[in-house]
């Protein structure tokens, strides 16, 4: 193995270790948050994910656009959206110029639920990240990964 191959391998090991560590922290935060949401009688994080994306896009999103932006696996996305609409958390409106297409928008009820869920989610993000990484080290990580 040449010196350059050895350096490349060391760099890969560093990236691999970072990848594993990030995933472990993310998984722990996810599971802790899911348990806390369930204990509070609130929906799972995949509902929060949908509500957050719609709240960030006040003009609404087509379902395929929304699904592409989500952080968490949405194995039954269409059924989830239908349930959320039935509960009044989001609206499904006809898309301009496309009678069959729909645009999804968050409702006030959806915003209120998202705010309730955020209190729990934020606490778990804060606790999980501060336990895993010193605050001063987080800013560069976020900048590099964004």
Main attributes of the structure:
mainly alpha, 146 residues, 6 helices, Arc Repressor Mutant, subunit A, globular
Can you put this structure into words, describing what you see?
- With 146 residues, the chain is mainly α.
- Helices cover 70% and strands 10% of the residues.
- The protein has helices at 3-39, 45-56, 63-69, 77-86, 108-132, 135-145, and strands at 90-95, 98-106.
- A two-stranded antiparallel sheet has the order 1-2.
- A hairpin with a 2-residue loop joins strand 1 and strand 2.
- It starts with a helix and ends with a helix.
- This is MarR family transcriptional regulator.
- InterPro entries: HTH_MarR-typ, MarR/SlyA-like, WH-like_DNA-bd_sf, WH_DNA-bd_sf.
- Residues 35-138 form the HTH marR-type domain.
- One of its GO terms (molecular function) is DNA-binding transcription factor activity.
Classified by CATH, the class is Mainly Alpha
Distance between the termini: 34 Å
Q: Round the mean pLDDT to the nearest integer and report it.
A: 87
Shape: globular
Structural classification = mainly alpha
The topology string of helices and strands comes to HHHHEEHH
Question: And the CATH topology?
Answer: Arc Repressor Mutant, subunit A
| Helical amount | 55-70%
How are the strands of the largest sheet arranged?
1-2
- Tell me the count of domains: 1
Bin the strand percentage.
5-15%
What is the helix tally? 6
What is the CATH architecture term?
Orthogonal Bundle
Number of strands: 2
> CATH homologous superfamily, by name?
Winged helix-like DNA-binding domain superfamily/Winged helix DNA-binding domain
Main sheet: strands, sense, barrel = 2 strands, antiparallel
């Amino acid at each position: 193995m040449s010196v350059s191959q050895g350096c490349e391998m060391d760099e890969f090991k560093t990236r691999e270790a970072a990848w594993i560590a990030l995933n472990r922290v993310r998984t722990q935060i996810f599971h802790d948050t899911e348990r806390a949401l369930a204990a509070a009688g609130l929906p799972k994080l995949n509902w929060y994910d949908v509500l957050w994306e719609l709240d960030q896009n006040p003009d609404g999103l087509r379902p395929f656009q929304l699904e592409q932006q989500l952080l968490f696996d949405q194995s039954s996305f269409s059924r989830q959206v239908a349930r959320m609409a039935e509960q009044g958390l989001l609206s499904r409106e006809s898309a301009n110029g496309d009678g069959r297409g729909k645009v999804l928008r968050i409702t006030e009820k959806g915003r209120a639920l998202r705010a309730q869920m955020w209190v729990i989610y934020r606490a778990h993000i804060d606790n999980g990240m501060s336990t895993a990484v010193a605050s001063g080290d987080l800013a560069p990580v976020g900048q590099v990964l964004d």
